[in-house]
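Title: Request for sanity check on UDP-N-acetylmuramoyl-tripeptide--D-alanyl-D-alanine ligase prediction

Description:
We are preparing a figure and want to confirm that the structure record we downloaded matches what your pipeline produces today. Could someone re-run it with the sequence below and paste the raw structure tokens into this thread? We only need the token string, no images.
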Amino acid sequence: MIPMTLREIAGVTGARLADVRDPEAPVTAPSAVDSREVAPGGLFAATAGARVDGHDYAERAVAAGAVAVLASRPVGVPALVVEDVQVALGLLARHVLGRIGPVVIGLTGSVGKTTTKDLLAQVLERHGATVATDRSFNNELGLPLTVLRADAATRYLVLEMGAGRKGDLTYLTGLAPPRVGLVLNVGSAHVERMGGGLADVAQAKGELVEALPPDGIAVLNADDPYVAAMEGRTRAGVVWYGRSARASVRAEGVRLDDRARAAFELVTPSGRAAIGLGLMGEHQVGNALAAAAVASALGLDVTDIAGGLNAARRRSGGRLEIAERPDGVTVVNDAYNANPESMRAGLRAVRALAGGRRTVAVLGAMGQQAEASRARHAEIGALVAELGFGVLIAVGEGDPRALADAARAAGQGVAVHTVADVAGAIGLAGALLEPGDVVFVKASSEIGLSACARALSGAS
């Protein structure tokens, strides 16, 4: 955060000062919406959610070191009172961004955003000061908070941009106009809220490249026809990545080691380099290529790109997170979220990791799949059987039962069980696991199966 006084912030956001003794008090640290994450010298943004109202934690935030609270009403401690805290955060972020001028890189896609963001940040930070989205804070609150972590030394600002509805990316790119826009893929995540079809998802995702300036760069996945079609929606130059010959940044000779980690030869306009990823799953090749394409477009040499990718490690939890138990059981926690594309990728990655070991899948519902939800769950159940999983535990009523029925009907010998809830999954999986098993846990985040993964791995 660049230093700004409370008076300056009030001028930018249209706030009135309440209970402020010193309007010249400087804010020198990033902002937070969680009082437990307040940094001394920072600003606490009091937002009202479905379960918690941040205004109730204003006093605690100031006691923890916040200079003031950005609030929609007086809270009894120094406050900048605005009509809408979210809007005010956006105004402040846009103002700060205009003063520091880093290269803004926006990235979106239906699956792989967070992993790609983490990979790209690990490549770029070797070349210059880099600020990237924390975890998956990619919405109308998370994006401004990321911008407000940047300062005058920041060279690259990597912003993961989520889109749950049409118009979301137009809003986010209005707050932080990108010079580089990366679109990973178009899949069925959030399809229900976007109109029901992949074309609707593509329309929403393409808002990112529409926001790019004529001297900007659109980095597009040559292997995804919906993404490739976005070439016609941008004024910017286009850089292609993927496995096809059309891609100027591509992978050749892809192979997996005994830990299901991909190795390949990276081909870029500046040359070739050997890549050995530290992340699990062949699908990570696409994420790595996307990061490499952005870095290449920004002028990094292939040697620098390869160094960053080869040293990169997982930074965000709940995404193919591996825990090894003393009895030889391997727990793979992929329960941060789920859609058909990520579910298929995770199942295949776990099967490759297991080799000849028995595999157990603990799977819950994939949310927001519209009218096709039952059919998509059935497809996943059939894939579990096709891949040769030994055990399937389907968690929850409704669509998970369709998943279980499809696995049974496939007739591949998978032992299928159904349980009503997370507690049932923990109990049954704990009883069924044998030394040496590999267990895969995945569902949409609202199902709460991450608790099952933690319990099975022995984490607190």
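Thanks, this matches our download. The chain has a mean pLDDT of 95.
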